[in-house]
């Protein structure tokens, strides 16, 4: 690898990732920090992140588009639960704004970031690939670094070791790397897994496959939701597009949060509601007891959704089925389960989940010392204790990702404006010394538990709690005290600093 020569470029803000979060962040920086220089670094060749990368059949959102979409760009399509290509078109249309498009740098991967308090800036080492495929190392500096690349490893998923898998003579497919030429028409398909990817794949593949079996280790919750939102359709018929979008967004935020709180506070009631709905659709209470009645409570793991009950309809029609068992071994013609049952298969899809990857896999240092995320604390859901001028964009697990992502972007813009007004070059969160630690995500899902030690902890009090509540987070992000638990390079503000406005009251 060769090194690029020349003077080091400096920018005020660098955003990493040109997916749903990064494009939204670019819009906020361009409109709320109009005098700042910035760039969006994207390691791939296209905009869209997850929605450009994942190409498996039926790929879609499991959040409604009125909350997954940006508050500044109304969603105008008919379906509230949108397919992947529609979401990708929406992101690309947003990025087509010249203020955003001209700032995106493709084929640019962040390798390491080093903060210097003396220089009050980050030094970024990047791998930049040219049109001929040659990669060179480039250096860039910035005043504020905003990571919008999520927390998944998009280069490799979670791949458990299956006994005998090499003996299987059929085709094994990983959803993350779906082959464009895969032909499964009329074939026997087994999808291993019961998460969002599996619940999406099964009904979609069932339309053309001979039969699709969803193989799960234990029962899982799946709830049916309408593909279209009648309330939102009515709002759009009678209100201007922007107003209708906000009305639909508010209604869905309230409904989603109310159901989540019901699941956490009255889990037995939530269980009964979900089971009753599933039994009514399937018409088979025994099937529900065996395959859709987990031992855990709703929202101990992320709740999967079936738009228009498509998974249940595929099962009811006989095109698909579900088996709850563990894998004994692969055989040349399929899978032998621990119970002794044989599942014959021509194609096996391993929808076993993604792996989590902190900081996009880049190495971070502060004044020459490596950042130990596992020993750090998360601040307001987006900053890291002891790390100056760095923010991470992390969405909700119990609601639309974009709800928190957009709040984070607006908070970053407020913080940068605040530091400029008060003469600060940088600031970092300072953690309380007597907190009790909890995992950053309160989920029992395997992908979370496997990565707990690699991510920062959340505490037992504000502002160190990773709240899963938009209604509480919004006032903090938009009007909260920006100096709380923050240490700045120049604690004494200039004497001519104006009195903070209402957007800086304590929250």
UniProtKB/TrEMBL annotation:
Residues 488-507 are annotated as: Disordered. GO terms for molecular function: flavin adenine dinucleotide binding; N,N-dimethylaniline monooxygenase activity; NADP binding. Its cofactor is FAD. It comes from the Bacteria. Keywords: FAD, Flavoprotein, Monooxygenase, NADP, Oxidoreductase. Pfam families: FMO-like, NAD_binding_8. The keyword Hydrolase does not apply. InterPro entries: FAD-binding_MO, FAD/NAD-bd_sf, Flavin_mOase-like. Gene3D superfamilies: FAD/NAD(P)-binding domain. Belongs to the FAD-binding monooxygenase family. This is NAD(P)/FAD-dependent oxidoreductase. It comes from Arthrobacter cheniae. The lineage of its organism: Bacteria, Bacillati, Actinomycetota, Actinomycetes, Micrococcales.
